[in-house]
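Exercise 7.
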Amino acid sequence: MSSGGLELPPGDNGHEGGPADAPGGAPDGAPGGVSGGVSGGVSGGAPAGVPAGAVSLAPTAAGSVRAGAELDWGADAWSEVRTRAQRAGRAYIWLNLIEQRLRAVVGAVLRPIYEPVHGGDDWVVAAAGPAGQEWVQRAVAVREVSRRKGYLLDPADDNVLSFLTLPQLRELMVQHWPCFEPYFDDRREIELALDELEVTRNVVSRNRALSRAVLEQAERASARLLEVLGGGAGSPAADRLPIDAVEDLVGDRYADVISVHPDRVRLQRQLPAEDLFGGARRLDAIGIGLNLLVQNFSGRRLVRLTEAGCRVRLLFLNPASSAVKRRERELGLRKGELSRSVEMNILHVRRVRAGLRDPSRFEIHVFDETPRFTAYLVEGETSGIAVVQSYLRRARGMEAPVLVLRGGGTRGPARDADNGLFPTYREEFESIWEDSRPVS
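Solution. The predicted structure, written as tokens, is:
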């Protein structure tokens, strides 16, 4: 195919291991472009060769097929297709973020070196060198075709750099690593993360089934790579789960709930206590015994957190109240068992407070009302997070479902109180705090 006198070099033959897996395999610079269409997403082979979880339209046995039967999809098939689309969509967003960030980094570092000498878009051709001549010429030709057919909707994309794919951008970075070395500490870490993403990119570009394990691996690699490339806003402990692109897209459907866990064990696998509480500037907690904090975050760490400027307010259920006795009966505990556990936790945090230079920043109160929920409201400089559990009649706190909420930071913009749950629990905490009594 020619356009404007330019000839497209040989392209992909449509199978793994071909030129599509090498730099230049995905036209138009789209990391997750769907090249296989429906035929790439639905296997047409025999059922015996269909991987677990894949959708097959093949007949089950010879001679048992009626006309048009292979065109039907049942409820299970549609459910599987929706699952594929959801996983591929989430992976595509991460890949798109990485490609845009890497394109910006490559442009910022290499453009000032090559553009003054070669000018215009020729600096990309010069930077690619003889080794990248074929794929950079293909990018130039694809841009010309896109111009002619009206595919360039944003003038900012009318440059060769915007038509380079993730492997090509990586190749430019590797070839010119001495130029990037002053800005990034570990080349190996960047390459390993991009290697992990290549599997996902290959699957998404062909519209094939993406397993949950591969998707989670890609998300971890993307988050790590964005942080290395300077696309993040700091460590997880400092910013309490930075907002990702997927949350931005669908967040308004779920208020400020960013995750739900069936119990606290699964929560702590995804969000360890150090990531939840570490680096906080404000920590308010309410519950019966506050075990998530007291038993999973050491006293010395609490001291360091407070000395670093965090304000702590802890609100325990009064161990001498009738509410504790009712809760013991609900859980089938021996008389005084829960009361002693709460007392031990209060004694622990009192020792922490006693070791502080400024004990006024660490407040401990007790309340006598019926406990309705436990909540940990943690706020950093720019963002916050809350872990909330309702008390169930026969389930311990460790076994109750958990909501994780997004909140505002101590200096960040205020969240919309009408569309979120964080302000609701914040208001409830303040109300109970006003009616509570301090622990001496």
